[in-house]
Amino acid sequence: MKRFLLIALILLLISVPSVSAADNNTTSNTTESKMLKDTEMVVLLTGCVVGTVDPIMNEAYRNDLLPAGYNFTLKIYTMDTFNINSTASTQFKNDLKTVDIFFIFTRPGYPTTGMSYGTEFDALVDLQAIAASLKPGARIFVLGPVKPNITGVNVTNLPAYGPVAAPALSRENIKRTLLEVLRLSGAVNLTANDTKLVPGMQDFLYHPLAPQVYTDRAPYMDWYMNTTLYRPGAPWVGVAILNRYYLSGNMDVYETLIQKLESRGLNVIPYFYCSDPIGASRRFFMVNNTSVIDALVACVQFGYWPDNQTITFFTDLNVPVQGPLPVFLQTSLDDYINSTRQQGLRGLEYYWLSMFEMQGRIEPILIGGSRISGPDPLTGVTIKEYVAYEPGIDQLVNRTLAWVNLRKKANSDKKLAMVYFDSTHDEGMPATNGLNLYRSLSNILLAMRAAGYSTGNGNLTEEYIYELINRAGRNPRNMTQTELRKLVDAGCITIPVSEYLKWYSGLPASLRGQVEALWGPAPGNIMIYNNSIVIPGIMMGNILLAPQPVWKWNGTLNNGTLPPTHQFIAFYLYLQKGFGADAVVHIGQHGTLELLPGHVNAMTEDDWPNTLIGSIPNIHLLKMEDPLEAVINPTKRRAYAVTISYLIPPVMRTELYGVYQELSDLMGSYSTAEASGDTDRMNSLESLIRDGVTRAGLEVRLGVNSSTAFSVLRDRLHEYLEELSGILTPYGLHTFGELPDSETLEKFIDAIISFDPANRTARRDEIRNLLIMSASNEMNSLLRALNGEFIQPVSARSPVINLETLPTGRNMYTFDPSSIPDPAAVVIGSRAAEEMLKRYRNSSGGRYPETVAVDIGDVISTGGQSIAAIFYFLGVRPIYESGALIGTEIIPLSELGRPRIDVVISDFHNFRGAIPATMDVIDNTIKRIVNLNESSEMNYVRKHYLAMKAGIYAELVAAGMNTSEADANADRLARTRIFGLPPGADPHGAGVDRILWSRDDWTPEQLAETYLSYYSYAYGRDLNGVQSPKLLESLLRTVDTTMVIMPYRAPGEGTCLYRVSVTVNFMVNYLTGRNINSYIARTAYGTPLIRTLQESTYDDLAVTLLNPVWVQGKLREGPSGSASIALQVRDLFTSDALVDVASPDVWRRIADTFLFDSSVRSQFDPSALQMIARYVRQAHTRGLVSLSQEELVAISEMLGEKSGSDGNDQGTTTTPHGGTTGGSATSGGRTGTGSPGLSPGVSGAISMDSQSSGAASASPGEGQERAGRSYEISTPTAAKSSGTQLYAIAGIIGLFCLLGVGYYFGPMRK
């Protein structure tokens, strides 16, 4: 480091001219002042310049400006200071009151108004307040061309000085920039030429041991290859670094990285970016347009942008591009590592993470951060070192080496693990997201065999793979010694306990402590047989085919930190240390590895996901349009996966069938009769049409009855049949690397064109070619990833909506989080909210809802339409600067013309982590709205705030808190509106869904307690997931309706979004006895279609479970298709058990079609059939349908039980899916009611012809022994304490957790 500093100093002295006016007296040590007036300046450095420019500026002021006689007063603050130092913001505000100059120093292009200035500085309002606090005559200067969005103060931009933040950065230019600010303020007598920037350094190569910097590659290579560092024949690795770390002397992280790469036998080319990142990178890392490196560690936060130039360079380079990250803007490295909040990156650091993904960078590993040593006594700037996080650098280096190994190793020698999922959502059977698992595995293994991989001697057909998986590759539900012995005898993997103990002892003590506190000392008691840990799986040559182990749940929340079991740990340690996997391929949906406890991103050695994946390259095959899978379930950020997108199942325009086709024909006949004036025929046809509407269950769906005028019924029926035909029906599943048959392909193309026929009809051939390319690209990209090549990035979107997502086979990302909601989303989301309010008012006598519960699960798919809807309800407009959301403008009530509507924001899938800045804007907006001088009847947000604040305040004071603290805390709590899961929790953990899926004897009280226990964690500025069940309960009592944005045109894709509305409806009914309507805004149309939850469910059922075409398409896919049908039935039960969304007739048709029609039943995989049987019987037990005793006996036989049961006896019967029936299932019926459930109708029974596509031959016989339970599920309970919690808030404004105040969940009364 000393050597580096000396070289840097020499370079600066010999290469950079200095300011003439400043030079005259610097060398003569005169202290004569050159100031024309006393001047105080405060500089605030924000964004990426923090940590590097501030020490350079401090040195320029101390060692250059003051000795030269520029003795103005300078105070330097940095953006991170307000997060690290609790008193810094107060001092900053005090200093601003007397300053003459306030200089905002940030990299040009970043928004200035919208920067987050820590916990107390919320743009837009606070920057305006800061400007207002300046004394008369004070001036604000901003680096670069972007003007802050403030009024009433003189703001001067410095567009010509923007380069000082990056390409022209040097101590000399920092000095000149400060002098220019003084010159423009009239404080010094200098000319513009005196302060003009001088040229910065060119892009260069530099090694800490090198005698100089190199602007050409050849001399660097000559030097390097003549040192002992050089390893002849070893791979070369490029490292890209920002020049500012070199110039500021903050090189510890990169010197450590370079040293560790070289210590592992790699040669290194360290490149420092100044001004031409792509051109210089091509010069340094490529020769004749061919890469001379085998991996690129891209540490630059900018320079490489998500644009065609960068992506083309990465594609040409064709090596893995890793994107490690620092933490330095929000906290110190030590505090980040030791904090229990495990929040992950925020603000600009999070923005960089997203930008990296948009470029195709992978593996955002934490490699360093700031270490604080105290303030400078003269300028007050916080002195920081940028220090290495060695565990992160070690993992980065090991993973770099692993990727290089994939490039160098022969395919025949590579060991690969192919991991599928059968328990992520308690499926109990191998399941994928829109993928035919067995056919896809067959295709993949055959392609690998052709590429030279060792795949064993099997014939690799889908039937052969199905048989292998069923024999030795499924997690057993019943973990008895008998079942484990069967697995062992079938040839699964066994790990001697002694071997596991050796691996386990190498884990950090903190992780071992978590496991042993819950699951006991190693090796635990799960999946242990004959002193070995049993791992289901099959070896096929060098390929291990295995299911991901079950992340067991013990029925409690464990504060959202449920560690994996010993068997789960053993599986991934076996891949690392026993099997020695060169790579792992996860297939078809998200798993649970990436959901294990730890930081949301930028993980430490004390986090589970990165520890268990270790250094194994991870490739994850995911459906192209599912952002829940692609990014938010942090496959990329926590398990370091390269994702490979695959096509959605083919979709086609819905063909009318049964009674719908009959009605369509009758409507056509009526029009003919009407045209000819045949009144008798018109009367007859009217009668037939009315009868058909009744048989189809369409009265409620259309809002008609027997007295409705036929003209009204006719118009509504015509519109509905058109709408139903416009819904896209998914047909079958996708097979990885394969196109559907030609007829289905053409219908798929028709469906894509139908989204925008005006612009797409002429592009039919292009669309076909994109789909054809997708099939080949999927398999080629998988093989290329396994060869350590670069996979191009692509957004996670539907091909129906966005053709740019084709071809598939690319590495998915989400969006630029700073722009959410984007302009298109603002238009569509606002329109959807407007139309929803119209629909609500039409059904409520013109009254507005006081509170709308809004789910934000659409933000990635839609660019934030739900956020735009929230703004619309609140009566505000978003404000943007440089394309980034920086705040909101409150619309006056006189312009708004209606009340401000309160919101409860439901985030059941941790989407808030994708848009932290947006959530801060919402939180700050609500803070401003509750303080408006508006009547409660025109501001429902304020109305509820005042009521809750008074109650909270009284209870806090009664509990012993002083009045000032009670007032501040009551204010913070009463304006909280964002609720979700515990920080870092599994979205599929202890939720209501899991109770419904895992046990049959649940009660409404248990479900309500589960909801308030698991979904009541409050979020906002200063609130990072604080459990607040009483607060959520109070808000739920005010909810009048719910709204969900549904961005898909095919049903089934957004089922989890429906579930949010369903559970909120259930809770409102449970707490208040009120039945509320939920609205689904279908926005994948020209104008948003607003439908009730019941109407949307009706439409989905008409297109899926009750549609013969849909069913046939699934059944021809074999076991994967039958699993898809079963899961759809489970989803329906989950909704219908909580809220009345389907009629008994629906369940009757499901039972008749799938259970009692032998031609259909024979095509089902036994596990799928048992799942359907279980939920049909539950529907009977709960009063959703009535089954005969004979039917119950038949279902009991399907479940492998000895005798039938109607579910109402007092005994308890174990089910094959981990649940129980009977016993306490005595409540009967649905837990709550809403609008009556609707029943799509068909004319006559649905007839399914037997398929000859292998489903029957692939299924095992009916005589299989019934599996048992793998674990029990009980109602979740909160972490135990010495008493119960009132509002359960801790850590804000000195607030402490109040214990022993009488209730935890609050009075949950109907």
TrEMBL record:
Q: Which residues cross the membrane?
A: 1286-1306
The answer to whether the entry has keyword Transmembrane helix is yes
Where does the record place Gly residues bias?
1219-1235
Comp. bias regions, Low complexity: 1236-1262
Q: Which InterPro entries match?
A: CobN/Mg_chltase (IPR003672)
Q: Which residues form the CobN/magnesium chelatase domain?
A: 171-767, 772-1190
Q: Where is this region: Disordered?
A: 1201-1276
Ordered alphabetically, the record's keywords are: Membrane, Transmembrane, Transmembrane helix
**Keyword Membrane attached:** yes
Task: Return the protein name.
Answer: Cobaltochelatase CobN subunit
